[in-house]
Amino acid sequence: MQNKKKLLLLSIIQFVLLLALLGNIMYFKQSADTFKIKSESLDPVEPLLGHYAALSYDFDSISRDNWKGKTELKEGKTAYIVFRKGDNNLYLFDYATDQRPKHSKFIKATVEYVYWGSGEDEDVDEINFKHNLSRFYIPESQMDKYNRGGNEYIVTIQQKGDRSVVKAVDVQ
Hints:
Layout: H1 2-31, E1 33-41, E2 45-46, E3 50-56, E4 61-62, E5 78-85, E6 91-97, E7 105-115, E8 126-130, E9 135-137, H2 143-146, E10 152-160, E11 163-171
Antiparallel strand pairs: 1-3, 1-10, 2-3, 3-9, 4-8, 5-6, 5-7, 7-8, 10-11
């Protein structure tokens, strides 16, 4: 009898944890802000991982002029990619910083690579970012529409707090 009670309690705890996880996901989907940015496809099909659009953005690699951070820039440090509203309700890359913006659309990223050129070669300064918006898995029924490298896409992003996810990708 004691084992049955323990088993029932364990089952109830697992069920409650599952409901909490699903509730968290549903709350994010319902309450997150959405905005759209431009992207380009690099390699849309990977046989081993399935069908996905490998997306690249103009803010994946930026120059020193686009960095507005206040602390020393190091690999592995948290950064924020900030957007400004452009034409047709598309958001365009504005700048990157290490301070969380208060009244702008942004995504959280990690500094992956920093290269400062020599004094005479200022135009080779480069900062690369890693973020979770670089892949979008494609439903099998829509694969033909996405199955061309070099396409330009409009990416709809859901963002709440520091969390950002790709909601949809439309071929432009």
